[in-house]
C-alpha cells in the first residue's frame, strides 16, 4: 500500500495534477491579493481548465498544437455563447448545432476527441458568468491567456522533467508485458476452460499496443529533433527490445490441446516451463523497478537453474519414452525451450541497454522511423465520410446535442441553482459506446455521493474557512491526477473541490452539496438514457469492420513472413511495419469485442460466433508470430514448394472470408497442387529425416546438428502451416455463420 502511494506521488499523472493546480492557483491568488479582482484570475483558471485535458502523452508537436487549438476554440465558443446568452430563441438552436459540430471533431482521433471535450466545456461554462457585469471580450481573452499560460508551464514541465513521460510509459509497458507472460504461463498448465485466460490476453495485448503507439510517437518523433542523442538512442533500443519481447510472447509454438494430450503423464516438464515464464515475468518487474530507481539492477540466478532443470527433464523424457516414439514430443519441448531461451536473451538485452548500449546495435534512420509512426488522417473527407448513421461518432454527436438541449431546458424550467452542473455531467459521462457511458455514470454518481458525504461530515464538524481552503487546494491536484487512473476517485475529489470552493463564498454550503447531488443524478440519468434510446451504437453493428482490418493485416503479415523465409538475411523495415499493423489491428478488434461484452445482453447478438472469430484472429497472429520468430532466429534451409502451397491456400481462404464480410466475391487463382498433397509431402520429408536420424543414432552419432535442426524446422513449420490452414477454414465457417445470423 505504501509503495503504491509512493509511486502515485512520483507518477506523471500526479505531476500533471500539480502543474494544473499551480496554473490555476497562481492567477487566482495574484488577481485576488494584488489586482483586487478575483474574476481576472478565475477567467485565466478557466482557460487552464479547458486546455489541460489535451495535455496527454505524445510528441511535443502534438502536445503543442493540441493545447493551442484548445485555447483558440475555448476563446471562440466562450465569446459566441456569451454574446447570445440572453437570447433564448437563438441560444437553443445554436447550442444544438455547436455541440454537434464540436463533438463531431472526434472523427479525427483521440487527441481531437479531447479538443472536442474542451469545446463542450467552454460552451457549458460560458453560462456561469453574468456578462452584464463584466466585459465578455476581456473574459474570453483571459481564457485564451490561461491556455497559453498552461502551454508555457507544460513546456517548462517537459524541460525540468524530460524523462518522466517516457520512463512512465516504459514502466507501464514492461509491467503489462510481465502480466501478459504470466497469463501465457497459466495457459500452459490449465485444468479448466482457457477462455477466461484468453480474454485477459486480449485485453492486455490491446493495452500494451496502446503504450507501444505512445512510445513510438514520443521516441521516433524526438529522434528527428535530437539528431539521435545518446538518450534517444537508448530509448529507441529499449523500445525495439520491448517490441521483440511482445512478439515472442504473442508467438505461441504451443498447440494446447496437443500438449495436454502428449504430456498428460509428464506434467512436471510443463510445470518447469511455467516456472520459467513466471521467473521471466518477475525479472521484468525487477527491471521496471530499476527504471523507477527503487532497486539496483541484479542478475537473475534462478532462470539458468530452471533452464538446466528443463534440459534434464527433456533428456529424461527421451530416455523414458525412447526413440522414435519420443521424437515428436521431444521436438515440441525443445522448440518451446528455444523460444523461452530467446525470451531470456531479450530480457538480458534490456538489462544491457539499461547499463549501457552497444554502438553496433542497429538504429532506425529518420526515414525508416517515420514508417512506424501511425499517421493521423486529418483529411476533411473524414467529415463527409462519417456524416451517416452508420458512424458511431455521428450518432454520438447527434444524441449529445439533443440531450444537452434537454438538460439545459430542464435546468431553466426548474430554476436549478447551478443548471450547468447537469450539462457538465452529461458532457463528462456520455461516450460513443454504451459500456463506457454506463461505467462512467456509475463511477460519477458513486464518486459524487462519497465526496458529498465527506464534505457534509467536515461541514458539520467545522465552519473554519481555512480548513475549507486547504481541502479545496489539496483536492484540486488529486482530482486531476485521478481522472485517467480512476474516474470514481476523481469524482470524489472534484466534488470536494467544488463544494469547499463554494464554501468560501456561499454561507449555505449544505444546499450546494444537495444541488450537486441532484444535478449529478439528473445529468447521469439523461446521459445513460440517451445512450440507450437515441440511435444507440451497439458494437455488433460495426464489429465486422474490425474483423476485416485484422484479417487483412494478418494476411499481409503472412506474406511478409513467407518472403523473408525465401530471401533470408536482414529483417526488412516493411516486415516490421506489417507486423506492427497486424498487432495493432488485432488489438483494436479485441477492444471492440470487449466493448461488445459490455453492451446489454439483448444487444450481444451472435456473441459466441463473434468470440470465435476474435479467437481465430488472435490465434492466427500467434502462429504467424511463432513462424516469423523462428525464421528470424534460426538458420533455415531451402524453402520447399509445399510451404508456398500452404501459404497460397491459406491466403485463398482468407480472401474468401473477407469477401463474405464485405459482401463481395474475391477471385483467387490458387495453385493446382492440393493441400493434401502438400501435407503428405511434409510428412514424407519428416519421416525421411526421422529415419535418417535413427540411422545416425544406430551408427553411434548421438548428436547431429544438421539433421536435428532440419527435423525441428520441418516439424515446426509443417505444424504451424497445418494449424494456420485449419484456422483459415474455421474462419470461413464462423464468418458465414456470423453474416447469416447477424442480418
UniProtKB/TrEMBL annotation:
The keyword Membrane applies. It is found in: Membrane. It comes from the Bacteria. Residues 407-528 form the Integral membrane bound transporter domain. InterPro entries: Memb_transporter_dom, YccS_N. Keywords: Membrane, Transmembrane, Transmembrane helix. It holds the Pfam family FUSC_2. GO terms for cellular component: membrane. The chain crosses the membrane at residues 12-35, 63-92, 104-124, 136-156, 397-414, 449-475, 487-505. It is a multi-pass membrane protein. Its main location: membrane. Residues 68-318 form the Integral membrane protein YccS N-terminal domain. This is Uncharacterized membrane protein YccC. It comes from Lutibacter maritimus.
